[in-house]
Specification:
single chain; alpha/beta; Carbamate kinase; VC0802-like; 4-stranded mixed beta sheet; 16 helices
C-alpha cells in the first residue's frame, strides 16, 4: 500500500481508460507499518498505542505513541499525494481520526479511575477502534490519489467512525455497497469493518482478508484477487535463491489452508472458507506485474504428483508426558484450554499412549505460562518446551510420490537430523521436525529434491 503511486501504472489504472477502469472494487489494508504502530509489532512484539495504553496507567506512553503514529501517517501520504490541497485534506482526515481516538481513550482512562468501571472490559473495543484508523487512512488517501488522476473513486468507510448503530458484518457490507454504481465508480473500501461480531476478537490481524472475502461473496464477484509484492511460488527466494523458485500457477484451497497454517498467509483460512462456499475463485497476483495471471486457487486444484511449495516455520515442541493418561480420555482438554488462553497457535499435534506433543508458534513467555497451568492440573507430568524447525512439503495431491520416504532420504544424505515426521491421510503435506538452526538448510535440500532447478519455466520474480 505504501507504493500506491507505483500501483497507479500497474494496478489501479495502467492501460485502462473509460469504462475499463470500473467494474472492480478494492479492499485495502493500512499503509506499511501503521497497524504495528497502532497495536503492536506483529513480529517483534514492540508495543504500539494499544499495548502501551493497556499497560500504562500514567497515559504518557500511549499518547506519545499516538502522536508518532499521526506524524508517520502524514509523512506517508505526503510522499504519495502531489497536490497541496490533497495533502491538506489528508492531514485534516488524520487529525480528525487521531483526535477522536485520543478523546475516547482519555475518557476511558478517566472512567477507569473510578472503582465502578473496569477498563479491561473495554480493551477489545479499544483494539477495534485503533485498528480501523490505519485502513480508513489508506483508503481515504488512495481515493484522493485516484480522483486526482481522473478516476471516479469512492471512499467506502466500513470502520463505523462516529456511527451510532452496531450492525452485523452482513448489514455493514450491504449498507456500504448500496447505491454504488460499479459501472461508473471505483470503490476503495477499508479492510476493517466495525460490526457486532468484532473482527479483531475473531480474526485479529487477519480481518482485512476476511472483509475482502465476505464482500466478494456478497457481491457475487466473478473472481477475488489478492495482490501481493511477490508471486506465490515454490519457496521463499531469499532461502533457496530466486533463480530456483517456480510460480505455483494453480492450486487448491486445501493447499492454501496448509500455507496459512505454516504462516505463509496466502489467505486467511476463514476468508478461504467464505470464498469456497460462495463458489468464488481466488487468484493471487503480483501487484507490479499486471499482465501475469498469477496463481489461481480453486476447487479444481493443481496438478497431482507435484509439490507446490516447500516452506518452514520455527516452532516449540510442547511435550506433555504423563504415564497416568494411558487409556484415559480427555487429558488434552486442559492442555488445549491453556494454549488457547495464552494465544498460542497450534501448528500441528502428535500423541501416543502417554505423551501429547503440540507444535506451537508463539512467545516462549506464553508457553511457560501455559506450562505452569498444565502442571497445576497434572503435577506429576513431565513437560518440555523445545525450539525446533518445522519444514513442510505441500501439494494438492502427493499420493503417488512417496514424499515422506524421499524427504527422510534427502535429509539423511544432507546430514540433517530428522527429529520427528508425520503425513496425514489426505496426502496434501508432510511435516518434518529438524534442529532450529538447520531449518533453512532443510528447506533448500527438500526444494532441490522436489523442484529441481532445471524444471524452472517461469521464475517467480520478487518485487
Amino acid at each position: 500500500m505504501s507504493r500506491a503511486r507505483e500501483l497507479l501504472d500497474s494496478l489501479y489504472i495502467g492501460a485502462r481508460s473509460g469504462e475499463a477502469l470500473y467494474g472492480r472494487m478494492f479492499v485495502v489494508s493500512a499503509f506499511g507499518g501503521i497497524t504495528n504502530m497502532l497495536l503492536e509489532h506483529k513480529k517483534s512484539g514492540k508495543p504500539g498505542v494499544y499495548a502501551q495504553f493497556a499497560s500504562d496507567d500514567s497515559g504518557a506512553g500511549w499518547l506519545d505513541a499516538l502522536n508518532d503514529t499521526a506524524r508517520e501517517m502524514c509523512t506517508i501520504h505526503g510522499e504519495i499525494l502531489d497536490q497541496a490541497g490533497d495533502r491538506e485534506r489528508a492531514d485534516a482526515f488524520v487529525r480528525d481520526r487521531i483526535e477522536g481516538a485520543r478523546a475516547c481513550l482519555i475518557d476511558l482512562q478517566r472512567l477507569g479511575s473510578y472503582g465502578h468501571f473496569r477498563i479491561d472490559r473495554q480493551m477489545q473495543t479499544v483494539r477495534e477502534l485503533l485498528s480501523g484508523l490505519g485502513e480508513a487512512h489508506s483508503a481515504f488517501v488512495t481515493a484522493l490519489l485516484l480522483q486526482r488522476h481522473g478516476v471516479n473513486a469512492r471512499f467506502v468507510d466500513l470502520s463505523g467512525w462516529r456511527d451510532e448503530g452496531n450492525p452485523t458484518l452482513a448489514e455493514r457490507l450491504d449498507n456500504a455497497v448500496d447505491g454504488i454504481d460499479l459501472n461508473s465508480e471505483l470503490p476503495i473500501v477499508t479492510g476493517y469493518a466495525q460490526c457486532t461480531e468484532g473482527l479483531m476478537r475473531e480474526y485479529d490481524r487477519g480481518y482485512s482478508e476476511v472483509v475482502f472475502a465476505h464482500l466478494a461473496a456478497r457481491t457475487q464477484a466473478c473472481e477475488a484477487i489478492i495482490h501481493k509484492e511477490f508471486h506465490l511460488s515454490s519457496a521463499d527466494p531469499r532461502i533457496v535463491g530466486l533463480e530456483n523458485t517456480v510460480k505455483i500457477g494453480r492450486t487448491s484451497y486445501d493447499v492454501a489452508d496448509q500455507l496459512s497454517n505454516m504462516g505463509m498467509e496466502a489467505i486467511h483460512p476463514n476468508a478461504a472458507r467464505v470464498l469456497r462456499r460462495a463458489d468464488v475463485p481466488l487468484r493471487v497476483k503480483h501487484a507490479f506485474e499486471p499482465d501475469d495471471p498469477g496463481t489461481l486457487i480453486g476447487p479444481e486444484g493443481g496438478k497431482a504428483g507435484r509439490v507446490d511449495m516447500v516452506t518452514g516455520l520455527g516452532v516449540h515442541a510442547f511435550e506433555v508426558h504423563e504415564p497416568d493418561m494411558v487409556g484415559v480420555k480427555g487429558y488434552d482438554v486442559c492442555i488445549l484450554e491453556a494454549l488457547t488462553r495464552h494465544d498460542l497457535w497450534i501448528v500441528s499435534k502428535h500423541s501416543n499412549a502417554n505423551t501429547i506433543t503440540h507444535y506451537l508458534s508463539g512467545s516462549l513467555k506464553a508457553i511457560r505460562r501455559a506450562e505452569q497451568e498444565v502442571l497445576k492440573t497434572y503435577p506429576n507430568a513431565e513437560i518440555t518446551a523445545r525450539a525446533l524447525g518445522m519444514v513442510s512439503v505441500i501439494g494438492a495431491d502427493l499420493s503417488d510420490m512417496a514424499v515422506l520416504a524421499r524427504c527422510l532420504g534427502t535429509l539423511e544424505r544432507e546430514g540433517i537430523p530428522t527429529l520427528a515426521a508425520q503425513q496425514g491421510m489426505r496426502r496434501v503435506d508432510v511435516q518434518l521436525l529438524v534442529p532450529r538452526d538447520m531449518l533453512n538448510d532443510a528447506i533448500r535440500a527438500l526444494h532441490a529434491e522436489f523442484v529441481p532447478a532445471q524444471a524452472v519455466e517461469v521464475p517467480a520474480r520478487a518485487a
